[in-house]
């Protein structure tokens, strides 16, 4: 196994080293050839003779050479190994690459998103694109670490479910032996069950939604971060926990993701001091007053409303984050707790940030009778959700939680235009790795 | 939110405390009532008057009381709070439980596994059952931590795939808009693609297999731990990494899971010094010599062979773990590397431990031509696996990896009789939370 990553060459000046990686770019000056050798740690410049000119981009190389300090006037500040280069003594192509369909080095790839996705195995190697998933890893990791510090337990939520959790819209169906089964749209029922077991739980799970449209904000498969906890005194504790974890994540991204952020022109992320809270009706009034757009009768915010209220929060509170609370009962799932002091409205919230909805949460009904009554009123069949009902039948504390997509928040953090960019292998109604209509044409299969 | 967990009462002697939890057991002596109050940290004994006798098992309680040291002769060594009890001053039932279908306290529940699963939301609250998932959390956590120490990057592998990765057997089909899609049986193709991006990767993913039989060792949905890495000098490095991570996990279980292990009569897990390695043919010869059972022409080990070779390793090497290597080419997936020094056999291994197969791994073919040739020879269609082929087309280093189910290893660690016990919500051909034939009878839906 390789002993040295290219980034470590800066500490090996005058030493003989063996390096392994990919030829990222080749600058062939005939008698002298420069190669940027890339591995998972970064890039280092190789210098060799004309024999190196047979090497092509993405060839996999084994290199032996000597690390040399570059003269001051040739130091490259843009890369962490910019003060050194490696004079090649011996080299070998471990694996030869075919001619690339497009140039994959540099921060400005001159190709459209569909092309990047058609060549995903290749385009992911681009350092700027790869950086997106370094950020995603930090987001997920710090979600876990932040909640563990608050005595939360991680659990594994199922993908195959017996019954859609919140009615049947936009759910994928699975042929399950002789039965019909479904793919989980959320771990909602399971995280509530687990509150009965561990009190405070979280799960990182795949959520699958048959989104029937192709938009820049929706995926059919997402990696979703869910938390749920019991023994709350007030539903505001749920927002407080959500605020804590968002701040924790942003802080960790700043501490560990500096190199990745740089690719997106970011020095560090702005962390809100305190996230303001508005009832939906208050937010709609503010939007009306600012824009003249009157959506005050709507049960939810439109995307342009989300951008506007995020802008308002930035101007008024110095942060683009804002909690919108008290959505109408009819607009929230059947298990959402109604505010006894504001009937018709729920103890629920969305977190808006980066001009869009990032997170949703709220207090849940923990009384079995009320829960069953609500489900019946909405014609939601819970026959196969017996385990969910059990959790309430045998004693459930007051509880609540929140949920957010890892892709959506990474999209916000990095200012990506399309959520597909924030998914390693994005799926939508036309794409599962490959573009399905291209492959099948009109004769869909 | 609650400020104090019951376990913390040991540090609060003579103080007034507020506690929240579930009434686990009630011992009603008429004038005096003892209640074991359970929360996620453990159990503490409450002492109160006759008014407490209205409380039933699993009622959710808010308690105010005074922590008192127990007299020496009444100390309970079995629980961490055994030196104290709480004299109840004020109490409230936050949520009333219905009569339980069976007693859920204690380490010996007198019910069958199907009943435990039919009442999973309740049975998971039993401390011995809950302990299984504390161990699972530690296993998954330490898999992550151990590999991060070796410069591995975590990635999110998809659940919905365009094409079964290794041929079509036992794959679930999904209705994907107007197309057919499938559920991932393993993250194999994706982890190999990601070696081209991050060199060393791992993923914790859901793997779905339409196992057409109900056995004690198979689930249709598992949480699987996969690692894959490039720039290997020899395939033996893959086994070395597998050995490292298994030892790392067992060490962490010992350090963090002591309380959970105790429920299963375990003080600590035995950690192998060095895991022996045998070719399949050598193992079969040993088994033949020990038992007279001649499976030397078989391409794989039977369950009873696995038990026998694990027994042999225990006697001969002081560990029940043993790597079995060099399975025949025909028996391994098309991407498995053939041993150039032992043609017809592969550079692949299974890890046997606790008398069963725990893990599988090996070196992969990294040359596109050979890979495509092998797939064609086995009639494996890779048309929709274009991204996988790209990874090799554009330069892939020599690489390999391994995979193991989190449920299977937890089953081994705790000596569980059935792998369903090690899955929070086990799925098999007859069960998705509920028992499907009971619900639907002969009229399957």
Automatic annotation (TrEMBL), chains A, B:
Cell compartment(s), UniProt: Cytoplasm
Question: What residue stretches are annotated with the Aminoacyl-transfer RNA synthetases class-II family profile domain?
Answer: 133-426
Which terms under GO biological process does the entry name? aspartyl-tRNA aminoacylation
Q: Which domain of life is it from?
A: Bacteria
- Indicate where this protein is primarily found: cytoplasm
InterPro entries per the UniProt record, alphabetical = Aa-tRNA-synt_II, aa-tRNA-synth_II, aa-tRNA-synth_II/BPL/LPL, Asp-tRNA-ligase_1_N, Asp-tRNA_synthase_2, Asp/Asn-tRNA-synth_IIb, NA-bd_OB-fold, NA-bd_OB_tRNA
Task: State if Protein biosynthesis is listed as a keyword.
Answer: yes
Which UniProt key words apply to this protein?
Aminoacyl-tRNA synthetase, ATP-binding, Cytoplasm, Ligase, Nucleotide-binding, Protein biosynthesis
The terms under GO molecular function for this entry are: aspartate-tRNA ligase activity; ATP binding; RNA binding
One GO CC term of this entry? cytosol
The record's family statement is: Belongs to the class-II aminoacyl-tRNA synthetase family. Type 2 subfamily.
Q: By its UniProt entry, which NCBIfam families does this protein fall under?
A: PRK05159.1
Name of the molecule in the record: Aspartate--tRNA(Asn) ligase
